[in-house]
Each structure stands twice: as structure tokens, then as C-alpha cells.
Amino acid sequence: MSLVGKKAPVFKAAAVINGEEIVENFSLDQYLGKQDVIFFFYPKDFTFVCPTEILAFQEKLAEFERRGVAVVGASTDTEESHLAWLGLPKDQGGIQGVTYPIVADPAKTIAHNFGVLAGEWNYNEEGELVYEGAPVAYRGSFLIDKEGKVRHETINDLPLGRNIDEMIRLVDALHHVEKFGEVCPANWEEGKEGMQATKEGVAAYLGKN
């Protein structure tokens, strides 16, 4: 079930911040009333597609921060695994240089509550508890506003990397809606016109385009 339009699930968990420090009880609540948040899940540390996404978010971090947006990553690995990966140079397959928080979710409860867990526990015919699927998170991305409400979500299958520039475009669209009270039509980008959510507004917009 989609979380769009609903409050983002609450959690407290260990995380690595600034690429070098483990903190306990990390929570998105610290951003309430202050910043929008891009909260994204990736499947697993020490893999192949994941570092390309994590490093791409880091490369665009200044663009998010300029817009008042915090970036937070998460996977079902432990905080110790995160820390080890963050300490490994890029040319050795690591993600050294990443400064935004990365949350540890080894119990998989955060991924489950956000609806991105790529499997589930079940009982087989012998009554044994087994895990069906992959015990990791899909590539879920959530845009959460200052009030803690989810305004956008996408969930990619494990082999499909996401587009970081699209996340920035969505942030710009949200801020345009909040600032001008207009809606953003197809392929809208920062600097383009929005339109009023009325028949007259749509007609006027289409007449110019």
C-alpha cells in the first residue's frame, strides 16, 4: 500500500553520520518543521549498483542542501557494516567520502514499515518458519515534507538504479506547488510555468504550449 499522502513511519535506529560516527536512536523526527527529506533504501552494502547510487546522491548533495533538503540512506545492513564500507576508498569498491546519514536496519522493520522489503517470513508445509524472497530492501525513494508527510515514492526492483536528477526535479516541483499554489504539469522543470488546477487554468496553459 502506498504511503503517499500519509505520515512517514516513525523509527529510531543506529546510523552512521559524517561517514565516520555511529549514533544510536537516529530519527527523521529531527527534520520535522525544518527540512524536507529524501529518504532512500538500497539493497546491500559491498555490492555493485548500490555504490553508484549512494555516491551519486553525495555528488548532488549540495543541490539538495541548497533547496533545504536532507538526504538520508538506509539498508538492512548493520551500522558496523556501513562504517566499514564508508571507510573503503572508491577505487576499492567503497563509498568513502559520503557524509549524509546512513541508517542501519538489520531487523528489517524500517524497510517493512515503508513497504520496500523484498520478501517476507512465512511457514512452509512442515510448519517451519522460512523467509521467502530476498531479505533486503528494494530501491525505495521517499520525498517527505517538513510536516513528515510522504509526498512522493518510487520503488525499483533490485537491479534497476534510480535517477537522482529526477529526485531533484520532484523537490523543485513540491516547492513550486507550496510557493505558488499551482500544480506542475507533465515534464515540468524548475523555471517553467505551472498551472492553476481549474479547467480555465489548464486551457490557458495548453494554449501557451
UniProtKB/TrEMBL annotation:
GO terms for MF: thioredoxin peroxidase activity
Domain (Thioredoxin): residue spans on this chain: 2-176
TM region(s), chain numbering: none
GO biological process, one term: cellular response to stress
Pfam family, one: 1-cysPrx_C
GO CC term (a single one): cytosol
This protein's UniProt keywords: Cytoplasm, Disulfide bond, Oxidoreductase, Peroxidase, Redox-active center
Keyword set includes Disulfide bond: yes
Function description: Thiol-specific peroxidase that catalyzes the reduction of hydrogen peroxide and organic hydroperoxides to water and alcohols, respectively. Plays a role in cell protection against oxidative stress by detoxifying peroxides.
Family: Belongs to the peroxiredoxin family. AhpC/Prx1 subfamily.
Protein name: Thioredoxin peroxidase
Lineage summary: Bacteria, Pseudomonadati, Bacteroidota, Cytophagia, Cytophagales
